[in-house]
Amino acid sequence: MQSNYYTISEYPTGTPSQDVFKLKQQDLPALADGEVRIRNRWLSVDPYMRGRMSGVTTYIEPFELEAPLEGAAVGEVIESGDDRFKVGDKVSHMGGWRDVAQLPADGVTALPDLDVPEQAYLGVLGMPGMTAWTGLNAIAEMQQGDNVLVSAASGAVGSLAVQLAKAKGGVVVGLAGSQKKRDWLESQGVIAVDYRDKDAATLSEDLAKACPDGFDVYYENVGGVCLEAALNNLRVGARIAVCGMISRYNDEGPAPGPANLAMILIRRARMQGFIVFEHWDNYPAFLKDVGPKVAAGEIDYQETVREGLEATPEAFLDLFKGANTGKMLVRLG
Amino acid sequence: MQSNYYTISEYPTGTPSQDVFKLKQQDLPALADGEVRIRNRWLSVDPYMRGRMSGVTTYIEPFELEAPLEGAAVGEVIESGDDRFKVGDKVSHMGGWRDVAQLPADGVTALPDLDVPEQAYLGVLGMPGMTAWTGLNAIAEMQQGDNVLVSAASGAVGSLAVQLAKAKGGVVVGLAGSQKKRDWLESQGVIAVDYRDKDAATLSEDLAKACPDGFDVYYENVGGVCLEAALNNLRVGARIAVCGMISRYNDEGPAPGPANLAMILIRRARMQGFIVFEHWDNYPAFLKDVGPKVAAGEIDYQETVREGLEATPEAFLDLFKGANTGKMLVRLG
According to the model, what pLDDT value does residue B211 have? Predict the structure, then answer.
């Protein structure tokens, strides 16, 4: 059987162009004991993947050149060499960026028994949802009534973060760059603030108007002016969960950091970076907390869906243009 | 009785010049019930005082213009209107920058009964020592064997921080700007690194050579290139205690922050600001831990002593030139 997959031949610098991604084919070898073969239905593209497209190990290993790229995917078992899986099982795994994946069964997970669409396990109940939940709870230790600021607030992670924060009762402000995204935020009871083309001073003032008492928690997905403006609007004892700094992922050289980092001292604030993969032990607790809310329709999760394997590179690159509302997904036929 | 004191008539911008400080005299009113009158023997000057010389409330109230400046001091009670104190008692209090202080007894503390010189309560057993201990233990949660980096490592706070860190067994590196300071650090088993006139890249390399495995804890007193170089040399899960950013205290405008703040994410590090005055409940625990070590001569604390009340402004300003080794003190005749 043939598998069609995307790979890269070299590590791009700066913003990758689409021709970095090469579509290739391979004939899969016969299934070995302990392996399963999966026809993928949904592929995930996520900003963190940019970090794997460099020759440098940051917090995760680089992608191997010429090998199939990796990423979260959901599909159906079409052949099984392992007792734990049978043909027809719905599963999630990391063999994305391809139509047919052949993997050791140890890296494959059966989808939980919840009444939700299968692609939810790539978004609201997958890595992005788990990232939002971990950042707010384990890292920022959000308390009932806390005022919370979220950057990239309509993205896959941010859109769940604002809803989980809102459920705890404080003022929730979301930063988003388009009117459509801000409309969605306002529909959730979130105060939406535009950050596009603003300097840090202007954005600081806008945040102060949106939440005059300041923020107890800042959920940081962006960096740059968003971070600088947030630092100017912290309450004493604030916690910043640093989940990503997407504004910097394609930078070719270092850019200056916030000029007001001393606010960490002045506000006795705490800023902490985290990688969700290191908190995966908490996934069952997350699923127990958030899964029933999703099944009951209490969480409004957005998806931006692209069609067909060949749409994957553009879907990925569009993440850095803010083209997605909610989770960016690729659906395979 | 007359009191001679220093005051300021306006809030300076940038690096203050010496003529900002005005020496004035007042005739003290008769002692009221509940007050004590103290002849000061030792005055403390500390970098945090710069923050009080601006019209802006940061984490502490500004000094009142034309009123006596405040700061830690040690002296002897010469008249008492409160049962808790009698003439001849040795006390510490916040009525510094003057020769005779008249204060409510509630703000006056009898010196503990330890066999140490009285000025130790302004340094190794006072606010600076408590700051070092709090930053390492309560904020950075230093563990046995941790590798620790300390900036301003021969200062009043840093010189105790390196010794407390060294006692826990890991590699300890101290940043200091003069050969004399580095010699003292090396005499304590601390690896001394010069930071003067280096850019962040060069200093990063020097730190990597000094401690190839990276740092679990960074005790931050300085900001600027020291912070940027430290961020490049963190271990996964590192903790940064932000005690001060002395390199910025005299800045007239904002300066760019570190270009590599994303290391917080890459190393899953935590950076936390603190103000020692908010942790003063722990002072008895600090005194119990560190006091006997000082009395036994196990802590090598340095002092830079200036003579006479009129030396106070220059002593304060010299803190920002790095002219002190250990605690900067003014002795009154």
Answer: 98
Given CB atoms, is B267 within the 8 Å cutoff of chain A? yes
A289-315: pLDDT as tens digits: 999 999 999 999 989 999 999 999 999
Distance CA B74, CA B103 (A): 13
Collect all residues of chain A within an 8 Å Cβ-Cβ radius of residue B242: 264-265
> Cβ separation of A245 and B223 shorter than 8 Å?
no
**Rounded distance, CA A45 to CA A20, Å?**
16
- Domain assignment of residue A210, given as a range: 127-277
| Percentage of residues in chain B having pLDDT higher than 90 | 83
User: Tell me, what CATH number does A261's domain have?
Assistant: 3.40.50.720
With 80 as the cut, is the pLDDT of residue B218 above it?
Answer: yes
Residues B140 and B254 in one domain: yes
CB contact under 8 A, B262 and A243: no
Q: pLDDT at position B229, please?
A: 96
- Name the residue in chain B with its Cα closest to that of A247: B262
Decide if A244 and B265 are in contact by the 8 Å CB cutoff. Answer: yes
Contact A295, A320 (CB under 8 A): no
Stretch A164-181: mean pLDDT:
94
Give A77's pLDDT tier (boundaries 50, 70, 90).
very high
> What is the Cα gyration radius of chain B?
20
- Domain identity same for A305 and A218: no
Of A240, A276, A242, A271, the closest CA to residue A134 belongs to A276
> Same structural domain for residues B7 and B116?
yes
> Which pLDDT does position B262 carry in this prediction?
86
CB contact under 8 A, B257 and A260: yes
Could you read off the pLDDT of A38-50 as tens digits, one per residue? Answer: 999 999 999 889 9
Q: What is the DSSP code (8-state) at residue B20?
A: G
Q: Which residues of chain B are within 8 Å of residue A274 when distances are taken between CB atoms?
A: 265, 268
Q: Is residue B296 part of a domain?
A: no
Cβ of residue B237 closer than 8 Å to a chain A Cβ: no
Q: Do residues A92 and A105 make contact, with C-beta atoms less than 8 angstroms apart?
A: no
CB-based contact A262 B271, cutoff 8 Å: no
